[in-house]
Amino acid sequence: MARLDPQRRPRPRLRAAGLLLGVLPLAGALLASLLLPWIVGPGLAAGHTASLLEPLPVELTDATPVGRSTVLAADGSLITYFYSHNRTPVHAGQIAAVMKQAMVDAEDTRFYEHRGLDVQGTLRALVTNLSAGTVREGGSTITQQLVKQTLLQTATTPEERQAATEQSLGRKLREARLALALEEKYSKEEILTRYLNIVYFGEGAYGVQAAAQAYFGVPAADLTLAQAAMLAGLVQTPTADSPLADPDRARERRNDVLERMARRGHITEQQAAKIEPEPVRPAPGPAPPNGCVGAVIGGFFCDFLQRHLVQNLGISQEQLENGGLTIRTTLRPDLQAAADRAVLGNLPMGDPLAATFTAVEPGTGKVLAMSVNRRFGYDAADPAQESVNLNVAASQGAGSTYKVFVAAAALERGIPPSNVITASEPYVSRVYRNGTAPYVVDNVGDNYPPTLTLEEALIRSSNTYFVALEDQLGSVEGPVRAAQRMGLFSLDPVADTIIAQRRGSFTLGPEATSPLALASAYSTLGANGTQCVPTPVTEVFDANGQPVTDSSGTPIPIGFTCTPEAVPSAVATTLNQILVGDTALPIGTGTRAAIPGHQIAGKTGTSQDRFSVAFVGYTPRYAASVMVFNPKRNQDVGGFGGGRGAQIWHDAMLPIVSAQPPAPFPPPGIPLGPPLGPPPG
Fold first, then answer.
1. Which CATH topology does 12-52+85-275 take?
2. pLDDT reported for residue 62
3. pTM, to two decimals
């Protein structure tokens, strides 16, 4: 049987000090146990414990602290966990019988005989530790340890943590009283299971399931005798006895547990002798992901989700990390993966230029994917990490994508798609000014006839036509309000200022724009005028599988928020048919986004000095924006929205759209003019 290596025994003075440190807590526990009948009253000795004990704290009447919350994608696959303690509670039947026995033999040999306190066991532990020269047995029963660990791990204030750990007779007495009460209320099987689910095994693993995964990569139900003995030996000093830190010491502790199991007849001498010469062979499983930095997929989506849960739904961070919630989200892993490939296929990870792809479902507001050529993280020295959610933040302008809002306002005012304007090159606004100077605008390139209809001007993306159309409207308020109603929420903080300052440049999209807001606004067109607030979650359940509630017990409202006719359906369906031409007609600026056999509506955008390029494409099923810009400084990104922007959109959406039957847009609610080219495919 295993014995302490004489060369590893402490020197006399250190040994004496260690003995003193080991004996004092045990002596305190012993004293508490011996004095308890006189402190709580003589009736205790007569067996009338229930009437004399204080009520159990709620922490001890509840189940084991549930630990981590699980975040799932729309298809049920894992995105990440949130936890402060890595714990996965399991039922008694999910723990190997040999693990239960090893823990009892290692920690509390008379567990099935006592009623929460064990004076005989405390005395034996005192003698054993004095003889061994170190702490080989604890003085507290498993029930007492369960009380201490539960109170410690559920503590929410420094005072509660102090009360759970202070070295005082009062704490020992309270633990003893609560241990007796637990034994009155719960079966031995329940107490042992709760203890195995709460005890710390080192390596960040709380509970036997997490420990089995952390050290051996197996579930607790599959632990072998050797593995169970090693884990049981960790509980007293998990850091020092870890096989990952000190394999020899872990082997010594494992063999000590095996010896005790054999001595009590729970395994044979031969079983112990066969294992003892063998080294400890840990095979650690991967640590479960924690938070958005560790997300398996969609780190930036996860960040948006976390903020939505805390800020919009009122779920606290503590509840998120320790409430055992199950959060079902709207993330489409297939679209997320396709988008990740698309952005990285066009711009490498960590490139100074950021490429964002953000997708929303028209008619529901479900956020389907958020991709960036970055990893979500907080290491500022790593150019491949970014903690600012570039899919949500408003940083650069989206260029001519804003012309759609001017067109929507014009159609609402009764100006038809056939509305003809002849605009000079350059065009000098009759309504808007650049400070005290006239507001003058040019087109980019020479492919713009001076006389255009609204329909053709939108497909060609004529700057001069749309400033002239703003002149015709007489105020920028209509386009600004149309954009807000459609869901361009990044405009809200500056909308009134744009109107008050009569910024004719609005149609050219210089305002800092959130990629998510841009996708949201165009999804309103895809839903024929119904605007839905972008939402990343569909269901949140508590640890019992019930819908999560607020402090009053009312279920938290998680449904989608939609506004029918945010713009008239006739306007939306008309714009849809016009914008199909942007990808389908030779005169369109977004032809790279075309997917044969499917109607793709879209609009390109390029901001002033090409500090950003954008493309928004959509169908009745999907709306997604692409923006490319430098998030750290102004930089000419090169090209236009119909180049890299449309290409990323195409590469992301091709496998998704092609896998489904075509979803054509409904006919226009306002008659269009004569065809501008071949019919869209």
1. Penicillin binding protein transpeptidase fold (1.10.3810)
2. 65
3. 0.85
